[in-house]
Amino acid sequence: MNRKDFITAFIGSTFAFKLSDTFASKSPIFEGMFTLAPLPYANDALEPHIDKMTMEIHHDRHHKAYVDNLNKAIAGTDMEKLSINQLLKDISKYPVAVRNNGGGHWNHTFFWQIMSPNAGGRDAAQMPSGKLADAITASFGSFDNMKAEFAKAATTRFGSGWAWLIVTSDKKLKIVSTANQDNPLMDIATDKGTPVLALDVWEHAYYLKYQNKRADYITAFWNVVNWKNASENFEKAMK
Ligand code: MN
User: Fold this and answer.
1) Which of 6, 8, 51, 168 has its CA 20 to 30 A from that of 230?
2) CA 83 – ligand 1 centroid, Å
């Protein structure tokens, strides 16, 4: 092999390698697959309210399992062509594995984003403001009343599930809870609406730090609520 042939072969093999990578990423196996996004902050960013190990296990194992099992449940079906919101909207048409794992994927993706370090009631600027603050006062009487009603929904949800602040179809704020990984966007939901805020009350969300004291976890949650993102959720839902 002379130098020119070597270079040609080298470039050829490099190109072939890149091309096969490109084909792999576009093969049907990878189409319509949902992915686990990294947490939008470090595992320990919500300390001391939500501990590092809980966040790590919750995201890296629990949320990952929902994504993996959702992908398994839709593999090779027409469901692969649908977005997560499209799946949730007509969830009654799909297998229960899609309801549980699709709900799990949507709920956790949302949950990570409505929390943040340096959030919550540490200073007035971190409280809800603007249109969301006005709507909370109008609907519940005060911010504290809303928190109390939300905490009640979270505390009284028996077993595993979620508490939600939602905007209903008639543009009203409402506090509801769902069982397991159900979600107010699902057609099977008793109380339908667009989520503004959510709290995971599965034991895996708090047991390492709070054990059986779910109420303490709920109280701690207010310290890490990302009201900026909640406000954006609210204003989008009101359009
Ligand atoms: Mn969870």
Assistant:
1) 51
2) 21
